Amino acid sequence: MYGAPARIRDLTADLVEHWEARRERMEAFVGVSEEPGGAAGKAMIVCATRDICVSVYDALRELRPEWHSDEVDKGSMKIVFSSDSRKDPERLRTHALRGSQRKAVINRAKDPDDALELLIVNNMLLTGFDAPPIHTMYLDRPLKGANLMQALARVNRRFRSKQDGLLVGYAPLTENLQRAIAEYSEPDQEDRTLGQDIDRALDELRNEYEILDGILHGWDWRGRLAKPSQRAFIEAALSTANHLRDPRTPGNNPETLDNPNETLSRRFREHAHRLERFFALAGSSADIGSRFPDQPQWKRDIQFLVEVRAYMAKLDAMDREARGLPVARDVALYLAQLTSAVVETGGVTDLFAEAGLETADLTHLNDALVAQLQKSDTPHLAAEALRRLVEQKMREVTRHNVVRQTAFSDRLQDLMVKYMRQQLTSAEIIAKLVEMAKEIANDAKRGDQFDPRLSNDELAFYDAVADLGSARELMGDEVLSGIARDLVVQIRKNLKPDWIAREPVRAKLRSTIKRLLARHGYPPAQAPAAIDLVLKQMEHFANEWAADGNAGA
Q1: How many angstroms separate the CA atoms of 148 and 158, rounded?
Q2: Sign of the CA dihedral 466, 471, 476, 478?
Q3: CA neighbours within 13 Å on the CB side: how many for 437?
C-alpha cells in the first residue's frame, strides 16, 4: 500500500508544496546557501522500503527536475541506503553509493552551506547521525518505541536560530509517539516540548499574535496598512518601527520601568521572533485559519509584524556598525536572508532620499534638509539615521585621534541621553546633530590651518599635548605643532615591533617623550598627563608604524 503509484504521486505533490513553504519560512532561522538553489536547512524523508525510496525520488524528480544530479557532489536530493550490487535490481543499483560516496553525501547533509536539501532514507541514518541543519522529517513508515524517538532526535538539534524541529507524519504517528514517550523517564514525559502536536504551535502562534497586538495598542497599524497606496505596507512598517523605537512612546523610557531592559521595542522584538518561529512550524497546517476566525487579514498581519521586526533588526545592526562594533553572526545571517520589501527599499537611506539627498553624507546638510527631516512622518528614525551618519563620519575623521574621538563621542552620548530622557524633542536633536555633523566635517580639514600643514598623524599628537590645562595658552600653536612633528619623528624612530610586550622599550619611549617635552619648554605641571596621553595616542598608530619600514630596527 505504501508504494502504490497513486499514493506516491499524491505524497510527493504534497511534500513538494510543504517543503517549499517550510524552507522559505526557515531561511530567517538557518540561512541559505549561496550556491544555485542553495538550501535553507535540510530535511529527511523516511520511506518504508528501499524500492519506495527510489519511487519517491523519481516522482520528486518529475515534479522538480532541477533537484536531480547524477553527480554525488551536486543536486538537491540524494538517497542513502544499503545495497547489494549482486542481488539488487538496476533501479536500486542506480542509487547505490560506495563508502567514499556515501561519506561525501553525509558530509553534504551536515554542511549548512551545501545545496543538498533532501536526504531520502530507509533504515540508514535514523540513529547515530547528527546533522544540525536538518529541521524537518517526513516520516512515511511506521516506527515505534526507541526507533521512533531516535528518528525524532535527527531534527531536534539546535542550530543557529533554529529552536524547533518538525516531524511530518504520512504514516501513523501520534499514538506511536505517545507510547514511545511513555517508555521514557518522568522528566522526559514532563518535557512539554517533546513530541508536541502541531496544535500547540498554533495556540502559541495565536497567543503571540495577541501579545503583539497588545504591545501596539493605541497605534493604528491596521488602518495604515489598509490605505490605498502602493507604499502603504512600507510606510506602515516605517511608522510602526518609529513608534516602537521613539523614546516618547509609553513603555520606552528605561527610567520608568521596573526592568530597564524591558522596553516596549525590546518586548516587540522578542515576541515577533516567537511569532515567526511558530509560524515557521505551523504555517502549513490546514487548521491555521481556525485560530483566526475574527481576523480575516491574519496572514497579512503576521507578515507585517515579522517585517517590522526585520526592519528593527536592520536598524539595530546599523547602529552597531556605526559604532564600529561587530554584528552577532546569527543576526547577520538573519538579515542576509531577508526578502522583506521594507528592507529592500534601502532602509534608512530612503529617509535622506525622500528629504532631497541622493546619497546620505555630511556635505549636503543644509537648512532646507534639516527642515524636511524635522517634518518627517518618522522623525525618530530620521534622528537615528543622522546619529549613525555622525558616528560613522566621526570614526572616519578621528580614526587615530584619541583626544578628538573621545571629545566627539562624549558630546554625542550626552546629546542622545538627553533625547532618550525626552529633554530634547526630535526636531531639537536633529538640529543639534546637524550642527555636530558640520563640525566633524570641518574637523577633517583642521590640519590645513597650520604652517606648514599638520598631517593627521601629527594633528593627533598636537591634540594630545595642546588640550591639557593651559598648554595652548602658554605655548601657542606654533610651538605645540613643532612638538607634534618631533613626537612623530622620535616615536617612529624608536618604536619596536614588539614594543607593547617589552617594558624596556616602553620605558625608553616614555623617557624620549619626557625629554622632548622638556626641551620645548612644555609646562612641567601638565607634563605627566601629556606623556600618558601621548603614549595612549601612540598605541593607535603603533601597529601600523611597527609593521611598516619606518619603525626602528
Answers
A1: 19
A2: negative
A3: 24
d(CA 523, CA 468): 10
Q: HSE of 360 in the Cβ direction (CA atoms, 13 Å)?
A: 25
Taking the C-alpha atoms of residue 531 and residue 491, their distance in angstroms, rounded to an integer, is: 12
Q: Check residues 181 and 442 and name the one with the higher pLDDT.
A: 442
Residue found by looking up cell 538537491 in the block: 76
For the record, the C-alpha cell of 278 comes out as 511558530
Alpha-carbon distance 447 to 463, whole Å? 11
Query: Using omega within 30 degrees of 0 as the cis cutoff, is the peptide bond preceding 326 cis?
Result: no
Q: How many other CB atoms are found less than 10 A from the CB of residue 191?
A: 13
* Residues 105, 73: Cα–Cα separation, whole Å: 7
Residue 170 makes CB contacts below 8 A (sequence gap 6+) with 11, 138, 139, 140
Amino acid 39 reads: A
3-state SS, residue 136 = strand
Q: Is 37 left (phi over 0), alpha (psi -120 to 50) or beta?
A: left
Please state, in angstroms and rounded to a whole number, the distance separating the CA atoms of residues 431 and 427.
6
Q: Which of 147, 197, 204, 190 is nearest to 175 (CA)?
A: 197
Note whether 79 and 57 are within 8 A (CB): yes
Grid cell of 231 as nine digits: 507604499
Tell me the per-residue pLDDT of 392-449, one tens digit each, with 9 for 90 and over. 888 888 888 888 988 999 999 999 989 988 899 988 998 898 889 888 888 888 999 9
C-alpha cell at 105: 553525501
pLDDT tens figures, 315-331: 888 888 888 888 776 67
Say which residue the cell 511608522 belongs to.
239
How many residues would you count in the chain? 553
- At 546, the amino acid letter reads A
